[in-house]
Amino acid sequence: MAGWRAGHPRRVSGRIAGAVTGPVTGPVTALLLAVLLALPGAGALAQGTVAQGTAEQETVAAADSPQAPAVEKTLTAPLNQDPYYTAWLETAQRAEDAIDANRASNAALEELRAQLVTYRQTFLDSRDHNSSRIGTLKSQLSALGEAPADGVAEPADIAALRDRLTVQLRDLQVPAVVAQEAYSRADGLISELDRIVRERQTRQLLSRGETPLNPAGWTTALRDLTVLLRDISNETVSSWRAARDLNRLRDNAPLILLFTIAGLILLARGRTWAERAGGYLRGLGRRGTGVWRFIVSLGRIGMPLVGLYLITRAVNASEAIGLRGTLFLNELPLWGMIILGFLWLGDRLYSKRDQDAQIPLPASARAAARRNLLYVALLLVLYRTIALIETVQTISEASRAVLVFPVILAASVVLMRLRRIILIEDPDSEAMPAGMRRMAPALRGLSLVVAGAAPLLAAAGYQILAEAIVFPAMLTLAVLCVVLVLQRFVSDVYAWISGVGEAVEVSIVPVLAGFALSVLALPVLALIWGARVADMTELWARFLAGFNVGDTNISPTDFLTFAAIFGIGYAATRAFQGALSSSLLPRTGLDAGGQNAVVSGTGYVGILLSALVAITSAGIDLSSLAIVAGALSVGIGFGLQNIVSNFVSGIILLIERPISEGDWIEVNGQMGYVRDISVRSTRIETFDRTDVIVPNADLVSGMVTNYTRGNTVGRAIVPVGVAYGTDTRRVETILREIANAHPMVLANPAPNVVFRGFGADSLDFEIRAILRDVNWMLSVKSDMNHEIAKRFAEAGIEIPFAQRDIWLRNPEVLRPGDKGPVDTGNGAPGAPRQDHDVDG
């Protein structure tokens, strides 16, 4: 706290408390602040400023006070001759005096705040100016080791070197310490100025003024308007006579004539020319129709707007109107922009052509929606006109209340009509944009609350509060409509460039475009609802400053640096893996499983190195994350142990390679080929062409049968039975010939024929042969069975099958018409007895 001046302990505590708790403005503000003042500086739409004091009271000059702390004097001693630092001290002193006095106007406070922001940014940039050299000096001091204890002698050369390095380090650290102190002081002063401005705006927003229902205010408003019109008329007549007498009209006649003719032509023919240009562009090809329509729509409002501006310039060039008339005339292009802009929104959202309407409504509802958007534009123009009247002529508070109240009432009616026409009629239609369907409930509620509350507040005298909710609500609807239109335009551009046509509706591009446009619209909405530009710049400065994790500051620049370097490393790793798998490894003697292990291991190492290099380049100190890493390890130990176990098992599988890609394995009753070994699991393709995902831990700790581990050689067993009485040696000879004749059977070791024994129905034999490729086992068995059937038929050898004879003790019960009792053989009538005889 060296930057705070001594002798003002109340100021320190008050500033900290104000920055933490914010203002408390009365018992009726809790609900209103929750809705309207969520953003810093809400209520800035209220017109006027709070003038409290003269310019002499606002800028109190102060030299360096003798009450400053000694530590500040010590730190700033090397900078006493620096003009920039001296100017900073004077500015900081003026800011503290203005805060203590609390009499300066908002405009003066904003100007003082802008100066403080400039100083703060300078000090922020200066904090790390000598960081590299400071780090080098600290490394040199660390290399010298710990300083000896008191009374312990140190070699003279080392002591001299240590003293010299210490002095250099101290000299380099002083500017950084001073910059940090000045940065903290400037940041605190900026926060205090913002708090004062917010409190004033809040008080002004919630202040109660004259009610427009008082008839006395009507006559006052009529008198003020009459005076204004008379003054404008008198000024115009005087200016016209002066321009005529001084020959200014004749001197500027060519320019006036040129601007007037060009402006009138653009006003009359601009929209027609834009339509013709659109027809020509659409004639070039059917692709990009939506893009051309958007460009043509801009031309339809752009050309008349240029014409309106030229006419304004022509009238200004004549110098035939007075000062007040000029101020109103200069507003004409802005009024035209508002009206033409809302007409453009209505045409884009609720077009007369069904195929061009972005929000699907019946034709009558679309026409009503376009009319109401035009009414919104006219009301905004009227509101700006009243604000301009306050600028050019001093009017009473009662007059202003009377003038604004009809506009507020009409705005509430228009909001209710828009709510009924646009937001309620079929809001859940599938044809309506998804964003509109999601926003419809909130917009309905906002419109209802604003339209109902604004006239009541204005009638009760809370004119500024009513203005601060009704006109921002209308502008909010306009901003949301612009977002929808621009999202559609981005989708059309993507469809035009990619050639996907209507398939863009299911693409992710419109979703990403809508998200980006929504994020960009947030600052605009904040400004509409009363946030100051200074608040936006302050948030941006905080964002650029980053946040602290331990002792490490992480800023967006650091994040972008990390992302860029890691992305480059990741891409290089993938490219190197592709070169290994396609060019280098196939020329080595490694099998497919070994090649896959090398490629996967290279990927893990490359990604790890990319992350480490990116972290180091971004300046992120991992040592400060020790506590977070400790907590994370505990979480891993309890909640992620299975994932870690599978990860470690995957590493073991890649190193030990008990299984490889392409192996035929059986695990947990599932049999198939290994298709992919990843970090957490292994994918097995069964013979049914289904994928089975097996956790790596099951492959390491469980029992796995690998039929092709190391080679594809395997044994096939073909069983066969012959009838009793058959020559067994002859059967053995035939089976051996069949096995030796198959091309997949190895000659060494030779196939073997085994006489297994005497079965219940047959004499059992087996062919046991070693195949050169066990993957052909089923085909080999099928071929051998076909050959066995053929050779046994030629040799007259019978392959027996089981036979059963059924004996009935009393078959007479099966004769028709005989319903005598049935002897079951066990004394219970009615159940036949069955004896089974097996014939082998």
From TrEMBL:
Protein's cellular compartments: Cell membrane
GO molecular function, one term: mechanosensitive monoatomic ion channel activity
Residue stretches in coiled coil: 92-122
Region (Disordered): 813-840
Keywords assigned: Cell membrane, Coiled coil, Membrane, Transmembrane, Transmembrane helix
Membrane topology: Multi-pass membrane protein
Regions crossing the membrane: 253-270, 291-312, 332-351, 372-389, 439-458, 464-486, 507-531, 559-576, 597-620, 626-655
Domain Mechanosensitive ion channel MscS, chain residue ranges per copy: 642-709
Protein name as annotated: Mechanosensitive ion channel family protein
Any GO CC annotation of this UniProt entry: plasma membrane
Keyword Kinase listed: no
DUF3772 domain span: 179-236
Keyword Cell inner membrane part of the UniProt annotation: no
Family of this protein: Belongs to the MscS (TC 1.A.23) family.
Annotated ranges, domain Mechanosensitive ion channel MscS C-terminal: 718-799
